[in-house]
Amino acid sequence: AQALAKLKDAPLLQTLNLDLFRNEVGEDGAQALVALKHAPSLHALTLNLYGNAVGSNGARALAGLKDAPLLHTLTLNLSMNGVGDSGAQALAALKEAPALHTLNLDLFGNQVGDRGAQALAELKEAPALDTLTL
Questions:
Q1: CATH homologous superfamily, domain 4-133
Q2: Residue 42's pLDDT is what?
Q3: Predicted TM-score (pTM) of this structure
């Protein structure tokens, strides 16, 4: 994942789909992928991180994608990653993304309880969000 994070330096990259299904990305890899927020032209990002042991710390790191200035479409498949309530609470920070109008967040098999669900409900406050899939 560290090597893939270098895609942030592609000046004309507008759409990026990374399918990293069961690739042992882990927390460190998730933290590295957040560097994609610095891609100057990135508008749409899909990260399939199904079954990568990202955990709550990795989810917290991925919430940093909120700082991608032009990102308007984000799809995060975090199924089977041990995200839990604390990771879901961190992901609620995506509501602060200024241009984000479409968010697809797959948290299947992450033991997200009431606290995490309540935090995710705060995504309704996102200023530009018009499509939300949980």
A1: Ribonuclease Inhibitor (3.80.10.10)
A2: 98
A3: 0.95
